[in-house]
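Dock pyridoxal-5'-phosphate; give full complex structure.
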Amino acid sequence: MSFGKSRKIYEEGIKYIPGGVNSPVRAFKSVNTAPVFIKKGYKSKIEDEDGNTYIDYIGSWGPAILGHSNEELMEGIEDIIKDGLSFGLPTKIEVDMAKLMVESYPAIDMVRMVNSGTEATMSAIRVARGYTGRNKIVKFEGCYHGHSDSLLVKSGSGTITYGIPTSLGVPEEIVKNTIVCRYNDIEDLEQTFEKYGKDIAAVIVEPVAGNMGLVPATPEFLKTLREITTKYDSVLIFDEVITGFRIAYGGASEVYKIEPDMACFGKIIGGGFPVGAYGGKKEIMEMVSPIGGVYQAGTLSGNPLAMHMGYKNLKLLQRDKNIYHKMEEMAIKLEKGIADNIKKTGVNATIVRFKNMLTLFFGEGSFNNYDDVQRCDTSLYAKYFKEMLNRGIMLPPAQFECMFLSAAHTDEDLEYTIKANYDALKAIK
Ligand SMILES: Cc1ncc(COP(=O)(O)O)c(C=O)c1O
């Protein structure tokens, strides 16, 4: 495979963009190689600037759940564009989209559209604080909720800890109100609430964590979270930016049968456009400006083109009742194939799957929290990634991310991937 054109663009890019990319993971730094630049995508495949094609398991980190350039999704896009791109005034499609989201996700009565997942979680936290009149929030180590200051924290030593900024530029005074707990650890959660419960405005959680590799919450953990936040009148926020409309049409709330007080969305609800949303119970959402005292706004929020595409994406997912089942069946096939290959090659690795998401961890044992995933051999993942890339498979360019299946993947894609996985595992052993 030749990457000459990608390399050239990258060299040019690093002069003008920090790291040559507009989001860090795209730099392929974790897998010790230079990024490839993508030119186009069709169904389950993407093609780079050099003409190399890949079976894509990133899917724009989730939005391309119907595959790239889905014909039904793209149909009529010119007509929408012809009517104008943005008005800064309300449009009907925004109301249609809000109605569809509220009907699709029973836990929320109202929703506000924003432009990214980061904006959604940041705003939800502000609303929860405004609603409860409290300042402290709880997040879990290894969960990522975008890059707003109060959520860019990691755990200090010990279990119940105040956060330490994970980034330069985040003042300690801001994250001092963020408590970091261990994912899937009920005892830690209970102790935290015993100590600080009356001051906790909200708990934000990825109900299926996708940002430390794939680590699903146990049902008991989420159940306890629901009970304890109810007991202390704290707002439970499900960050469904990845899981919403992905692991089921109704997201993790549907799968776990738990209703949060608020939920955040992104990725799929934009159909490939930059969109986020946060929603919640009526009395909470009525805190939001202009009816309430919590300010939150956006020039391009509810952009008509983005709303049309997001609305269509959701409608297409809603229409085909079998679509989630089909994606899960494909993921199961991949999981089985990879598990067999691990056995045959003897590589120290574990495949984890939840619904249509997977992570191949280069380590053994169970993966329930951030400490567990830290056992993985990230340099082995880097080698594996390159072997797979050279065989025409685009995996997440970092160990602590997920593979996403789309409805456009085919049996041949899966068979080819399983074979490539075998060869790649053999090559790195
Ligand atoms: C669970 C979760 N929440 C929030 C975000 C932030 O979304 P965005 O990148 O659109 O700002 C992400 C991004 O990957 C995410 O995975």
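Observed: The mean pLDDT is 96.
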